[in-house]
């Protein structure tokens, strides 16, 4: 018993630190566990950060105007409806904290992003977990779970770790079916990898209860910088801005983000590489008898016969210095989530899994 008691809900929050050891001592560790961009940060953003570094003694802008305008131009959006955060994680925190509290419910789906229940507890609200169907979000199950206490639905589209995506028609059916006073958050962290998907933009343009969240962590190659943004109705953005710390973004965030948002050639280049290597990895897995769905992201969920096989494959990969993500905690004990790498990295994964398979024969 300590003198200090944490607020209700805090002890329900999982400790989200740590992770797999860095395979200390292995000559060439290949980390394919966090869906990072194999090409690194865009050179344009590196130059912008170097240029901005000597100004690091000055406090950054509090309104993020230049960054919001660059994002708005790149995506043809209204800059006044954009809010920026320390990763899209922080934007998700703004919306859950601003609009839900004790007694309220926040819905997420069975295999939704692992931060959702954490953010829900941080807001003091109750997470409601809804099943998916064949590893795809089930719109009817979400609609059936809505109660008078529902404040927010958190939807990952495309999904993580499934890599699958709701069709635009299903997404619209979900938006149409929700009560108008429930906020639908479309977390589109992987939108750029899904061909023909607008990330929920057209829905956000036509409804007043939708927040689209996006990130610079994936295709923009800036996961270590921590920069994300949301697009919603003006009133919602204003409310969230009230709880945003004015100096949440550093001069480096602002400098890199503005340049990266304008560097759409980089985005196209990364998307093309990912599409090629994803098709190659998916095909090779299937040829090895390892099941996987078509992915709309920069990772593939490999499903083995059972948990024992997934552990054995993970161990075999680790012995070759390759780190992938076990996803038992996401509801897939038989799964390994493998980030799509560049050509050489993908070759290394395929070769390691092929050797593992041959060893089983
Ligand atoms: N949503 C999903 C579905 C994600 O996978 C991630 C990162 N793994 C995030 C949001 C958060 O991204 P970030 O905070 O880096 O922008």
TrEMBL record:
Q: Which GO terms describe its biological process?
A: L-histidine biosynthetic process
Entries under Gene3D superfamilies matching the protein:
Aspartate Aminotransferase, domain 1, Type I PLP-dependent aspartate aminotransferase-like (Major domain)
- Do the record's keywords include Amino-acid biosynthesis? yes
Q: Name one Pfam family in it.
A: Aminotran_1_2
Question: Pathway listed for it?
Answer: Amino-acid biosynthesis; L-histidine biosynthesis; L-histidine from 5-phospho-alpha-D-ribose 1-diphosphate: step 7/9
- This entry's Enzyme Commission designation comes to 2.6.1.9
- Would you identify the family this protein belongs to, as annotated? Belongs to the class-II pyridoxal-phosphate-dependent aminotransferase family. Histidinol-phosphate aminotransferase subfamily.
Q: How does it associate, per the subunit comment? A: Homodimer.
Protein name according to UniProt? Histidinol-phosphate aminotransferase
Q: What is the lineage of its organism?
A: Bacteria, Pseudomonadati, Pseudomonadota, Alphaproteobacteria, Rhodobacterales
- Gene name tied to this protein: hisC
